[in-house]
Amino acid sequence: MTKWYEDKALDSNVVLSSRVRLARNIKGYPFSKRLTDEQAKKIVEEVKNSVINDRTPIGKTFQYIYMPDLERNAKLAMLENHVVSPELIQKQTPCAVLVNDDNSINILVNEEDHIRIQAMCPGYNIEKAWEDADRIDNLIGESVKYAYDEEFGFLTACVTNVGTGLRASFMLHLPMLESNGRIAELANSVSKFGMTIRGIYGEGSKPLGAIYQISNQVTLGKSEKEIMDLLKNITSQIIDKENALRELAIKNQHTELEDTVYRALGTLKYCVKINSAEAMSLLSKVRLGIVSGIIDPGCCKSNIYNVMMNVQSGNLQSRIGHSANESERDIARAKYLKEIFV
Predict the structure, then answer these.
(1) Which residue has the higher pLDDT, 167 or 8?
(2) Could you state, in order of their start, the residue ranges of all structural domains in the chain?
(3) Does this model's pTM top 0.90?
(4) 276: how many CB neighbours lie within 10 A of its CB?
(5) The sheet that has 15-24: what strands, in order across it?
(6) What residues pair up with 167 in beta bridges, in sequence order?
(7) CATH assignment of 4-244?
(8) DSSP secondary structure code for residue 199 in this structure
(9) What percentage of the chain exceeds 70 in pLDDT?
(10) Residues 98-112, mean pLDDT to the nearest whole number
């Protein structure tokens, strides 16, 4: 089945994807960091059985993956595809993930919280992501009793998630704001409204290829709708700022921008060896060229965001079928790029 991140529409605008994440814990158990291995295994089984069962057809669409059974490259590939978090792939205690057919819904078990439901959609579609996450939340809630307080709402391991337990976010491609040195200013501005800007893999990660994630910081005291409405409002302003800079560059420096885009495309098509950082930078420039109408999206067999995932270390090594040193990865990356660009 086609994965959500393989959608060609991902190369159409500033917003790459929409995500809703719900943090939940099961009543009667300590938070994840204080679980014994036996308790952690029980939680894994409870969550697994609450989703994969005969009560509803949706369970048949999910695959259960016990994380300790996976090799490092497979874990890295799942991180690069936004299926799991950096924290989950580093856990040594019993933990798991349940993934649906197109990877748009992922249920992380025993990460920071007992349960983290994540729903993702291509492009600007936070409402669909919310509907998917809420449906899974209700399904699991039929079988397990959540830790919930009438005054404070859902109880979570981190106080910033108490309340709705909701983190809503958009993944944004912001090459012009980045190149104009506006990201720090932007981050300071959105923080005043309870929002934060992070790197490509969320908290603690760095931006790659001018990709940033904007999300709410606090979940207590606001409804899910209020959080998402505020996020949409602020994101719309960021989109306007990015597009204004793109239009200005096209109007005043079209030749320079065109040259930058085509040089990036040429390097990606004909390089023999390339590291991840350079590939991401060049892919960002090509995507800017596609969205701006400078080059035909048909230059690439896939959307650029999917290519960005595939040039990362875990996906690359999973594709070639074995672990590789840095030089071997750089050669394999160049070979893949030659195949994908036409």
Answers:
(1) 167
(2) 4-244, 254-340
(3) yes
(4) 18
(5) 62-66, 96-100, 105-109, 115-122, 15-24, 166-173, 211-216, 195-198
(6) 21
(7) 3.30.590.10
(8) B
(9) 99
(10) 97
